[in-house]
Design goal:
By secondary structure, the chain is mainly alpha-helical. Helix content is about 70%, strand content about 5%. The protein contains 11 helices and 2 strands; from the N terminus they run H-H-H-E-E-H-H-H-H-H-H-H-H. It has a two-stranded antiparallel ribbon. Helix 7 packs antiparallel against helix 8, helix 8 packs antiparallel against helix 9 and helix 10 packs antiparallel against helix 11.
Amino acid sequence: MGAVDTALRGLRVMIADGTLRPGDRLPSEGELSDRLGVARGSIREATRMLAAFGVVETRHGSGTYVGSLTAADVISSMTLTVGLLPLESVIELYELRKVLDAHAASLAAARHAPADIEELAGYLDQLEGTDDDDVHSVLDHSFHMRIAEIAGVPAVEAMLGVLRSRSRSYRIFESASASEIKRLSNEGHRAILDAIARRDAPAAAAAAVAHAAQTEHWLRQLRPPARANSEDMPNGE
């Protein structure tokens, strides 16, 4: 095991066993170096790795602290690695997407307020009225993530956000089949919303699975190249 791995393992054990709890300031690099038996540079690199995954955060002029360690925060940090996956792996993740989309839709059917239905319907009205692929991507994402938010389970919402962050890079609405895809997509969205509005959890789950499966089908058929979303680019460009 390399020195950085030793440092990383040592820090992880200290956090996992409660020696360092959420909000605690990490000991100095010198103290950690002595405790874990590695050089300060290895401690520094291990700390950077934990920061990349949202486990610790560095506050300028104050030190490095253990993060909140909520499930949602830790899951959200997975965007960094999921965002690198090739299409075949993204397609494989649709098996997880279908399960989570179904669960979120069924919970939203049980937990929504009337204002939520109006908001979701507003997204669909705009979606059905646009042919701009970038606008469609933003509205589609907003619709599905709002359902996840209404479901009321932050960890599920975070995981869906991570999974969708990569799949959105593959734009199926720019293909020759765009009009057919859009028609089916609109119908799928309406089926999900109608079931949620009726508080029919099984129907909402089934509609969500069918909609995700339809997108998976088009990804397999068209295999579009990945492209960055505007919000992923520097300065939003």
